[in-house]
Structures are given as structure tokens and as C-alpha cells.
Amino acid sequence: MINKEKYTQIIKAESKRLGFLSCGISKATFLEEEAPRFEEWLKKGHHGEMKFMEDYFDKRLDPRLLVTGAKSVVSLLINYYPSEFQNQESYKISKYAYGKDYHYVIKKKLKKLLAAIRAEIGDIHGRAFIDIAPIMDKAWAAKSGLGWMGKSSNLLTQQVGSFYFIAELVIDLELEYDYPTTDHCGTCTACIDTCPTQAIIEPYKVDGSKCISYYTIELKDNLPQEAKGKMDDWMFGCDICQDVCPWNKFSKSHSEPLFNPNQELLNFSKRDWEEITEDTFEKVFKGTPIKRTQYQGLKRNIDFLKE
User: Fold this and answer.
1) Whether pTM exceeds 0.90
2) In this model, does residue 1 exceed pLDDT 60?
3) Could you tell me which of 289, 3, 27 has the C-alpha nearest to residue 179?
4) Which of 37, 42, 62, 174 is the most buried (most CB within 10 A)?
5) Residues 159/113/135/196 CA torsion (nearest 10 deg)
6) H-helix or E-strand spanning residue 65
7) Residue ranges for the binding site for tRNA?
8) Residues annotated as binding site?
9) Which residues are responsible for catalysis (predicted)?
């Protein structure tokens, strides 16, 4: 018991030193409550063309299938809320994509954390995960007490809102476990009322195939005509449900230099975006999440918005 407490303190202190916003820990086990909800979500096609969501169904629900002998899921948050924002008269990019690709930034921090755990505690085995892995990161963060799943299906935290990334270490070390927090959405329906495509079909349930982020990033075909006039100038991702959430009035700007934006991105006008060349796209967005759409994908989104 003494060792579990000591090891838990070491991990949480090291995560803070590495710049993580917060750290919560839960027992690695099967996600019994989430399983039927996830299965129904897939059956109703709410994942759209994101067929990868159908892969590794069992592993998504049980981290012990990802790491042999797994005992604990260490959930971590890292802030990405910017101190500077885009020109208001511009096509919009989700704030998480302002800086360098978070997958690379966070992966390095996770490797350092795992190395520190091994140096301090011993021969610990585990794996680092970010959102592209088959793990239900929001569910684990909620189980670990880092926030609650809001009506928008975003993880919300009273102190800092929702503008953060979620990552995990799944390790074969037994630790002291945190408890889920309570839901503080109350009667608020701001996210539901303001979603222009009605992607939040009911509180706590999102049809991902109707989300502007899905349209602008994941969807590879032409954008649906029913979305015409509803995109609110979002050309990469969408922050509407987060921007209107009352808890995000507590958001504070991050302290990670790699998440700082290229000034050209912030200063671009609509005309600059409409006239962007492939060379400029490659130069300005090298190593950023926006590269996911590729040049032609971004042009498709812009053309759809200006029609």
C-alpha cells in the first residue's frame, strides 16, 4: 500500500514537471458501461466513413488487450488553448491545429514520462497512446476523475474547460486509483442549441457523420449539400461547441512553445486562403495537423464555403 501511494505520487509529480495539465489514474479493466453505447453508435453509422472506428473493437474497450499484464491506465491532459487567434475576417481553423502536430509533441512527453517511471520505480512495461490508437481516451480520463463527459461528448473540467488533448500510458504497475467526478452541465444546452449541423442529436450523443470537423477532415468525398450555408466559415475542424461552453471561460493559454501558431496562419484573410498555392500550403503547414487534409482537401473546403 505504501509503495502504491509513493509510485502514484512519483508519476503525478513527473507528469506535472513535463508540462501536463493534470494526471488521473484508473484500474485497467473492461469498459462495461461504454461497450453497449459504443456498439450502438457504430451500428447507427454515426462514425460515417471513419471505418477505422470499427477495427479492434475488443481492444478499444479493454486496455489489457493492448498491454500484457496491464494494471493501470494513466490519463493525462495537456492544454492547447492559444494566446493569439486568427484574423476574425477569415476562414476558420480549429485551435488545436494552430501549432505543431500534437501527436509528435505529446508522444515525446509520454516517452519521457515512461522513462522517468522506469528510472524511479523499476522495470515497468507499458505503452503510450494518443487519439489515433484504439483506446477510448475520453472514457478513461472521465474514469480517472479528470472531468466529465459533457452533452457535447467533450471531456469537460470545471477549472479549465475542454481545450486540451488527452493521452494515456497503460502500464503493468498497480497504483492508487482516482474516482470519477460529477456532471456539471446542469440544464445548459448551449452546445446543442448552437451546433449548426445538429450533430449533437441529443444530450451526450453525437452523430459524428454530421459534425463539421468530420466534413472538413475525415470525409474524403464531396461535402454534402445539406451542409451548405451551415459551416460558419470553418475550413478545418470546428470549435463551436467548445467556444459556447460556459466552462471554457476558465480556459488559460498554454505554455507549450511547439503549439504556438505560425503568424501567417493568424494573419491570413479569406482572399489569402482562396489564393493559397500548394507551395505556400507546404511551407506554412509543414508538421501541423492541417497537413491531414492535404492541399486539395483544404481547397475543396474553401471552395465549398465561398460558393
Assistant:
1) yes
2) no
3) 27
4) 62
5) 40
6) none
7) 220
8) 60, 131, 155, 166, 185, 188, 191, 195, 211, 213, 220, 238-239, 241, 245
9) 131
